[in-house]
Amino acid sequence: MNSSINTSAASKKNLAEESVSIDSSVEMHKRVFSVLVIDFERSLRDFLKKGLTPFCTMLKLVSNVEEAEELLKHYHFDLLIAEISGQGQQGVEHLNSLLKNTKSKVIFTSNETDVDTVLAALRMGAVEFLQKPFRMEQMLASVQQVTQRIGQKKEDEASFPNNTETIDLTLGGMIGRCEIMKDMCEVIGQIAPTPSSVLLEGESGTGKEMVANTIHLMSGRSGLFVPVHCATISPQLLESELFGHAKGAFTGAHQAREGLFHHAIGGTLFLDEIGEMPLEMQVKLLRFMEEGTIRRVGENQESPVEVRIICATNRTLAEEVKAGNFREDLFFRINVLMIHLPPLRERSEDIPLLAQHFSEELAPKLKRTPLEFSKADLTFFNNYNWPGNVRELKNVVERSMLLNRSLEECYQAGSTIDCLVPPALNGRTEELELCEVEKNHILKVLNGVDGNKSAASRLLGIARKTLDRKLKDWNAEL
């Protein structure tokens, strides 16, 4: 391996000019860490030096891989921030070889977000990927995520095993180290820049909208990502919502209105729960898929629109076709590319990572400290079936933070009601009526979130209107 680094005193002086060490009492979220920046742009190195210095025990900045290699012979760095697009093919190969011999976490930066660049970064073990130019708060947020993982690993090796053969992947908000997730991310990278329609199949709560948004972000499309939840819009309104309507098209249509297709021009329209779409609407969607045109309600004129379609379902659409609930011709149109999202129970090794991520993400919003997961919590993670998948895991973490109870306490019998409802009420020990159990449970959750009805409805898995109605029926005052 060729090395262009000059180890003379003058060269060492130049390196020293771009390095800084500070007192170890200055920490980010109480984490002590060291950082090596590899970037050919002097202005970017100066920018990072100014922004990262207050948070590092050691920060060194170099312009190329050869200088980094020399430093790594003498220092260990918790984190490497490396520019990938300006290295050239030989530089990328050199960087890849260098990273194979270090246990440092890696954040890649790049002027490019093409598929090849992103995939190269993932294959080399990137845990974060930032497109240039980026703001300092973006970099600090990425550094914080990585260093919190480093700190947790140092504090509890038993809870989060050190496996140098795996990576903690973060792509568009998707987190995981299992092979299923790495394979899925590679597929996403391959299909993102194409205009083809995509069908996402997976159980509720597996993150289908997040995957759809990631595909959109990686596609380079200039338009918006517009999500539509087909199951939440009444069949009578769905056509108008999607295609828009002319003035006077129906009672109450006092003015013309553009539909969601128009808002998604040049971008991506995400049709969630496509299996819930009525058959008559499926015909109209099929027309767009075949012709690339739409017609507003109350008009006869077809208008061309350039929109990419991504659909999602928690059903098996092939079976719905056989049952006559879904049009076969539309199924073939939307099923050009299919991605199956695995349920959480099939990626158990990712659960601690996800739980830690949610805890750190929710802490500022809930004004709580991040959770510290015990071995008992990890046992629960692995033994529980997680029917609600990633969404349920996030709710469990949020509930634990809000109620200040460990996961083991809340789920020792796999039942939220058993642990949250007191065994006796007003001294009574007889069995409670089901409606009274429900009332006690809801009021307990409300009390735990200081009367915040929105937070309580999320934790309970019910609509805010439903919660308001129940409280009104009970004449409950908060």
Characterise this structure:
- Helices cover 45% and strands 14% of the residues.
- By secondary structure, the chain is an alpha/beta fold.
- The chain has three domains: 9-155, Response regulator (Rossmann fold); 192-340, 3-Layer(aba) Sandwich (Rossmann fold), CATH 3.40.50; 345-474, Orthogonal Bundle (Helicase, Ruva Protein, domain 3), CATH 1.10.8.
- The strands form five sheets. Strands 1-3-2-4-5-6 form a six-stranded mixed beta sheet, sandwiched between helices. A five-stranded parallel beta sheet has the order 10-13-16-9-17. A two-stranded antiparallel ribbon has the order 7-8.
- Strand 5 (105-110), helix 5 and strand 6 form a beta-alpha-beta unit.
- Helix 5 (115-123) runs antiparallel to helix 7 (179-191), helix 14 (351-366) crosses helix 16 (389-403) and helix 20 (453-460) crosses helix 21.
- It is globular and about 75 Å long.
- This is Sigma-54 factor interaction domain-containing protein.
- One of its GO terms (molecular function) is sequence-specific DNA binding.
- It comes from marine metagenome.
- Residues 34-147 form the Response regulatory domain.
- Residues 174-402 form the Sigma-54 factor interaction domain.
